[in-house]
Write a structure and sequence with these properties.
By secondary structure, the protein is an alpha+beta fold. Helix content is 19%, strand content 48%. Strands 1, 2, 3, 4, 5, 6, 7 and 8 form an eight-stranded mixed sheet that branches. A hairpin with a 6-residue loop joins strand 5 and strand 6.
């Protein structure tokens, strides 16, 4: 019976690692954005695009200026899970902005992230 103990223990360890890694891949992560995080754009963007590596259902989006002013954004698309978030902001004056979104990833976890960018020459 001892000759099966080591292979069984090895199998159990590998199975536990595979299951743990599988859960980690369920969270959606940002793969790209336009404007890119931390960049400066010459003029107000007509739209803001955020791409994810896995579908996420966005539940809220906020665009806020450095002075605390919130700007209404128009979502492009429905409220179903998607691998991208696309919003159309109003014409933004020069300044610093943060786009914050909250959503549910495929594994049911609530996620929130931000994207910051500057409009105008700095």
């Amino acid at each position: 019976m001892k000759r099966f103990a080591l292979p069984l223990a090895t199998f159990a360890l590998l199975l536990a690692l595979a299951l743990a890694m599988g859960g980690a891949h369920g969270h959606s992560m940002v793969t790209s954005s336009a404007p890119a995080d931390g960049t400066t754009v010459a003029e107000s963007p007509a739209r803001i695009d955020v791409a994810f590596d896995a579908p996420m259902r966005i539940v809220s989006v906020t665009l806020r200026g450095a002075d605390g002013t919130d700007y209404a954004v128009k979502a492009v698309g429905g409220r179903s899970a998607s691998d991208s978030l696309v919003v159309e902001p109003p014409s933004l004056p020069d300044g610093d902005y943060t786009l914050e979104w909250r959503g549910l990833s495929g594994d049911g976890h609530t996620l929130s992230e931000t994207l910051s960018f500057t409009v105008g020459e700095r």
